[in-house]
Amino acid sequence: MRKPSLNRRQLLAATAATGVALAAATQSSLAAEDQSDLAGKSVLITGCSSGFGMLGAVHYAELGAKVFATMRGLPRMEAEELAALADAGDLDITILELDVLSDDSVNKAIAEAERLSGGALDVVINNAGIGTGAPVELQDMEAMQLLFDTNVMGPQRVARAALPAMRANKSGLIVNVSSQLGRVMVPGMGLYSSTKFALESMSEQMAYELVPHGIDVTIVQPGGFPTKIWENGNKLTAPMLERASEARKAAYPELVAGALRDGGGSTDPMDVPKAIAQTMALSQGKRPLRLPVHPGRKPQLGINEVSAKTQVAMLGNSPFGPWIKDVNERS
Questions:
Q1: How far apart are CA 179 and CA 200, in angstroms?
Q2: Number of folded domains in the chain?
């Protein structure tokens, strides 16, 4: 039997309390409740202290999944609030400490989740990510290292820890949360797009290589949503600007002036967990390689289409052809 659904107002209020600037959901989105059945699926998510991670943890558990919601720096207030949400909704959510910057932390969390689930995880969602603003020239090595270590090496650490058991089980799904800016770019976003371009490439290559092992990979491409990534990004951007020389900053006055952002628009962040849940519920081998999510413009669609055609044209008749066609025919 599916567990009782947590009141949407409780969920939005709790996530807002942890710093997620959630917009009021429209009547249409409130009416279109996700009916995906995730009963029996074990799901591990990174970055559950706010945003898509926290919303998703509750949503997937409401749909019947056994959820391992991870975050770094436990104990912390956000973990207590998520635990309270789980208790209020009688949801199967286990909170684990996982820092995507640490091999040891990742390996321990994955091993514990596998122990508690009785084997391989069904789904791993690499949601944790950060962003900084300002021109590329102002992104010093400290900022660049943290961006790539979190947004690229972090998902790789988690996937490497989870894949052996998935391969042995001949099933599984890796979901990597990218961005529209993993396909297109905006001046002044620094190296954020660079990390998401890298994540897109790494994920697509992994998708091909995992076809023989029965494991799917889906790249989620959200547009702008009002989550805590903007506030957290400002906390990283401000000290980076302080470290930059006045001469460098003077070369980019408009971009420096707009480096600290308050963005995301008035969209509903629940769109992303709903789209991921619907993808999880699909049969193995039927899940799309890329999943664009935004109620407005999706400027990456043309690039996604031509990329798929190019991969098939380049490798469709090679020994890798069956893998390439299998993955791209779903997109």
A1: 9
A2: 1
